[in-house]
Request: fold
Amino acid sequence: METETRTEKIDLKLGIFGQSPATEPSAELLDKIMADTGTSSFERLSKQEPSCWFGEWGVCCRLCYMGPCRIQSSRFNRGSSRGVCGATADTIVARNLMRETVGGAASHSEHAFEIAETLKAVASDGIKGYEIKDRGKLLSVASKLGIETANRTDKEIALEVAETTINDFSKVDGKPMRWVMGYAPSSSLKKWEKLGIIPSNSLNPIMNAMHRTSMGNDADVVNLMLADLKMGIIDGYSGLTPSTELSDILFGTPEPVKSTANVGVIKEDYVNLAIHGHNPLVAEKVVEWAQRLNGEAVKLGAKGINLVGVCCSGNEVLMRHGVPMAANEMQAELAIATGALDAMVADFQCIWPVLGEVASCYHTKLITTMPYVKIPGAEHVDFSIEKADEVARVIVEKALEAYRKRDPSRVLLSKTVEPIVGGFSYESIARLLGKINSQDPLKPLIDAIVKGDVYGVVGIVGCPNPKLRRQLYTERLIKKLLRNNVLVLVTGCIAHISAQEGFLNPDRVDEFEIGDRLKAVLKLLGETGGLKSLPPTIHMGSCVDNSRIGVLVKEISEKLNVDVSQLPVVASAPELIAEKAVAIGTWALAIGLPVHTAPELHIEGSKAVKGILSDTLKDLTGAETFDEMDPEVAADRMIEMIREKREGLGLPA
Ligand code: BF8
Ligand code: SF4
Reply:
């Protein structure tokens, strides 16, 4: 109730860029987009509210044409206790959740598949334009997958790595997926074996998930939820992990990098080109061609080409090239509304259809590139790895062409630019810690956790949900955790929110109320790495890069020989939007991490599903979910969970 009152009191415009209107002209930009286009995310949300409770509770079933069926619950007095086919709330909720998870796992898996095919083409000399950039990473991946490296060329090794990855999607030998065996924490593997949920490939379970959840199939909640957990494993090791690892081989493993964030990174006197989406195959080439054609921008009277990043492609090019972070998912349309963005190139995922409409109100060219992602109002330039250079050149040329049509009278730029440091891969963190203890790099971090200087670790991941942006949910959650000496790792659009609030700026470490003990650790590690301090939160990359957190957790749990579920580590998706975030959360549950979500998952309509996720799971993987719409209360709950886990390990609580 308290939360609802607070939400109402806050102006819809507040916090759209994660800051108050006093310091950031986001309110003006919001006015501008409304005046220019007649729409904004908040305006569209307000027209959808109040949400339908059947949908929100997961008890609306549209799986067949006898329906849609809506199941009655304590919140409303309509609907019946079962659908036409007799499906109960429990069955319907479990099936719906499974379909959300499979949506995410399929997205991440296709992402990984495209990178794996590219690596295969590079290794077999099938394409030009991409290369193996990180030999160290290649060897490390090969060794984890059990691939022989002695007396072989890089390309021979890369070919086997790529083929092993591609094979994992559809092999029929019945043996566990190689990526699962190579990358999952050993404590989790043991539990999965008992549960019989280690996948032998990823495409069959994805097919099976759609099959078993269709009308007249699996109605057993426990059976469905086990399959859901298996889908989480697939998300982690068919999607996230190979996406990150193979991208590192092709494009380099990130190292800490200085850059800037906020919509203010769009500059008046440059040709501004935004990179939006998720796939580094497109983004990397655009970065390359923007550099090659920079002189053309100068010929047009601009100072050059200014690349800026949106969403996870933004995170990818920030991590590897220091490209400034302009906007999270819901701010993409506002970046266009500055009137100074000349082009926005998009590949897949989280590209809102409204962008086509918004771009057509300005001179901005919205360019789609994936054959399976086309948007009305956008120009389409079909991407394939064979013609990647040609496509990237055309995209940059379209930005140059659009720049000539920019109307200065319609430009509204922000002056707020926040300095940031990002680019923390697992390897770069290990290297940094290795400067303190070269024999045993993880030891300084583990010691800090043991002593309580780092009380616990929370990975805050996922999206910017307009429902929760109104109350600056993520910023408040992070602030409370930092005050309590909790180390915060961020990825995805949360990293954008964090950047805009100043949490990625090492120079502001004294400005925020950070627990003394955590602050001392951040400063010590920062100085070791040649910075004033580490930033208040650690930017570990895009959403697929949650796998980097997965690797960190695996290494620590195996080194200490304890279950992942015993570690004082919590995962949080505080502004959940995407099915992908549900899948990532399910992966975290599978490996044994507690998962917080806001808003609540669409499971409230089923006591059985809710009970499995918040309780029974503790006995299966050691994990549990909880939802909490008040960020301070959510932080308290996470701190309490960390305290219990510390106690369990005999650490000072
Ligand atoms: O994959 S955080 S809104 S952009 S889903 Fe989408 Fe969510 Fe952003 Fe990256 Ni992740
Ligand atoms: Fe209704 Fe059953 Fe059809 Fe779902 S599958 S719409 S519950 S009849």
About this structure: Confidence is low (pLDDT under 50) at residues 1-25.
